[in-house]
Amino acid sequence: FPSHDSRHEWVQVGIFDITGRKVREVCQELMDPGQQQFVVETRHSFAPGLYFVQIEAGKSSCTQKLLVREH
Asked: Please, are residues 49 and 18 in contact by the beta-carbon 8 Å criterion?
């Protein structure tokens, strides 16, 4: 995700199941401005199904779908 602010921002990235329950905290830290990338291993941690990735950076947030298929 790109950060368009020129300041360091507190970033939180969480993964939620279809019921809204948080199943994984991916990141919770102060980050430098610019493009960031996160890798999440789903093979042994997630059952197949639909999840949501919520990204909060400063005052901005976005949610994206994550589809985990059978391994």
From this structure: yes
List the beta bridge partners of residue 13. Answer: 27, 55
Quote the DSSP letter at residue 30: E
How much is the pTM?
0.80
Contacts of 39 (CB under 8 A, 6+ apart): none
Q: Yes or no: say if 60 and 51 are a contact pair by the CB < 8 Å rule.
A: no
CB 50, CB 18: distance < 8 Å: yes
Give the model confidence (pLDDT) of 10-39 as tens digits: 899 999 999 999 999 999 999 887 777 888
CA angle, corner 11, sides to 9 and 17, nearest 5?
A: 160
